[in-house]
Amino acid sequence: MNNEYIKKITWRYAVKKFDPSKKLSDEQLSLVLEAGRLAPSSFGLQAWKIAVIKDPEIRKKLKDAAFGQTQVTDASHLLVLCIRKNIGEQFVDHYINTIAKERGVNISSLSGFKEGMLNSFLQKTEEEKDEWSTRQVYIMLGFILSACAENGIDACPMEGFDPKKFDEILKLKLDGFESRVLCAVGFRSENDEFEKMKKVRFPKEEIITEI
Amino acid sequence: MNNEYIKKITWRYAVKKFDPSKKLSDEQLSLVLEAGRLAPSSFGLQAWKIAVIKDPEIRKKLKDAAFGQTQVTDASHLLVLCIRKNIGEQFVDHYINTIAKERGVNISSLSGFKEGMLNSFLQKTEEEKDEWSTRQVYIMLGFILSACAENGIDACPMEGFDPKKFDEILKLKLDGFESRVLCAVGFRSENDEFEKMKKVRFPKEEIITEI
User: Fold this and answer.
1) What is the pTM of this model?
2) What single-letter DSSP state applies at residue B88?
3) What gap in Å lies between CA B149 and CA B152, rounded to an integer?
4) CA geometry: angle at A130 spanning B89 and B142, to 5°?
5) Which of A83, A160, A172, A191 could be bridged to A177 by S-S, CB 3.0 to 4.6 A?
6) What is the value of ipTM here, to two decimals?
7) The CATH fold of domain A3-207
8) Helix crossing, B126-150 with B3-11: angle to 10°?
């Protein structure tokens, strides 16, 4: 087994206490965001956005909307992973146009693909579309957490926050997005008691079944 | 930027045509499964299972239940990522016991953590719990896809299948699980036309907002 790889993903844990003095370099932040941007999603549709929160005053407000969890203010950067609302023909057209431009192909050659996407959305309620997009955002979360671990950057995924308050503070709704999950990135404090705790995973035989 | 890392995740794409003659070594398969096992989940609860499908006869049946997509039979292995059903006190106790054993701590020292988990589940319907578990499974999917890319293994995440039929064929329900998403792993065929296509992602300014 590539023990080097496994060692890196074992090194990671959900950091509870970040060292507020340690910041990601521009290069490290770019790498994390690029991993998010390159993450796969169903149809490749990317119905998402990453809000990178740097403003300390806004982060204080967000902390209050996240049950006072210190990662929101103390990590180097807070990433708010969002879904795009109301996906339908307009956004699908934008996606199709982007493919045509990037690959230098005719839009008409993508009409079957476009119809397939639109049909799948027609069968879903707005709530179901949002949930589908949320699942894709969690793939991105997995990609970002993995990229952090591979590159010696600490992170903490967080579901414990009030999405409605976040959306208000960040004015995400105006932009057609809603927050779904957080990822604080930075560097662990030497005093984070969670660092010393053994990672707990169920043994292989409980998690993996061969058929 | 760590261009080596970005190069690897850019190398990956959702393989449509696998080379059926190329199989993952035992070591490669172990690495992929270990990446899944080590993936993070909310509370660290791991309400999931990976079914690794090797049996060719069963894979033929699954292909029919996945709109005939050839990745189901032609990839080296098919991973079916599942959620655990009916999470509640029994499973939480099992998790708490596992933590206590692994970390050598008293169960009583984990009572606050246990109550927190149980309270959060009490507030959810069975449907909401399933959706919450599904989101966690998508983090695992992100981890597995990332591990494959980092280690030169091809993969294809797949939502296009009939979960009910999969659960029947694999008898997952008996075991208390339900299928949620597929991940075929193996090696791309030289004739996969999708390999030549440029990866399409929206530009940074459309996906990333700094606040």
Assistant:
1) 0.97
2) S
3) 5
4) 70
5) A172
6) 0.97
7) NADH Oxidase (3.40.109)
8) 110
